[in-house]
Amino acid sequence: MDTAAGANQERYLSTLQKLLQIPAANLKTALTHAANAVSEALGADKVDAFLYDDTRDSLVAMGTSTQPLSNLQKKLGLDVLPLSNGGRVVWVYRTGEKYRVGDSLKDPEELRGVREGLGIRAQIGVVLEVATQRRGMLMVASLKPDFFTDADAVFVETAARWVGMVAHRSELVENIERHAVEQGRKTVAEELITVLAHDLRNYVSPVVMRLYLLRHRAESERRAADIDDINVSLRGLARLNALVANLLDVARLDEGMFQIDLQPVDLVAMVKEAAAVLSTPENQILVETSDAVIVAADAARMRQCLDNVFTNAINHSPKNAPVSVFISRASKDGQTWGVVQVVDEGPGIPEELLPHIFDRFVTGRKDNNGLGLGLYLAKRIAAAHNGDLEADRFPGKGARFTIRIPLFE
Hints:
alpha+beta, Beta-Lactamase, 6-stranded antiparallel sheet, 5-stranded mixed sheet
């Protein structure tokens, strides 16, 4: 091995070792360390790792070697380069081709600020890929003309792949940390909500009992106006009790205390009963069925599942639009199911919301009324019955929710 080849191999190994030793810090810090390692290996006056920022339609120097020329670059505003302004950094990113020049003063396509403001002469620029996606570019610069060799250009291409791996690792760590923080906040919020639900139930129950006594007294004294006011209050408290029940059921699911007692249940009769109770003058629930369908279910929990899905459909339906319910049998994956399809005529489920429609605390209502627990619980109740609840867009209408529960055999 000749002296030059040995020196190149030593440079490769030394730089790779430094890149591998970069701590799993945030992306900007990691890329700054990487830029310093590449700059030291090449004796460059500045190295920039540019990444594309779609919010600004610009390439941003996320990692810049800590050298005097980098400070001047920031002062001149050349650390953020809009794609519309052109220049060789943008050219490399757009074309994916390598750029090498011995004297930038002779390149009219380079930005004037780079040529005259920074005084850069020799440059090597290569595309920067992160997780196989073109995300930016790596630019190596010197104040001396014809400073870089052919071997340097090959080295920069290799180093750019390593820098891309450093960026990918840092982004993964940032995502993990962000999700951990979000999960921690979510856990605390859920614990507070559960405690609040327990306390609310303790306060609401005596109020409900007192209102029933007041209504009985008002009925005895034939005070119609007071009876109407009390009934309005009781309906409001009933909605609050339903919300509290949902919150407590979420806690039971999390703690593995959600019990299911499977018995033969007449699904048709249950659906018709739920539809009769939940139908309103503005939104009738219309049930269509042909055969009897007996499923293996916990009657109370199955009714809760139906009520939540029906209520969701009514909440998203326009005035005077019916909710259509179809009951049938179906075979899928070697299993025979009782199937309930609930179709509303609302605006449908937005594409971005569809993957999260059954997540906890997710609601598609524009008025933000509700905690987004109804569909979450309905999905979990169906799963507890060894069934499922799915959502999709119904052709020509709004949303369609399909409940599948195993038949009783």
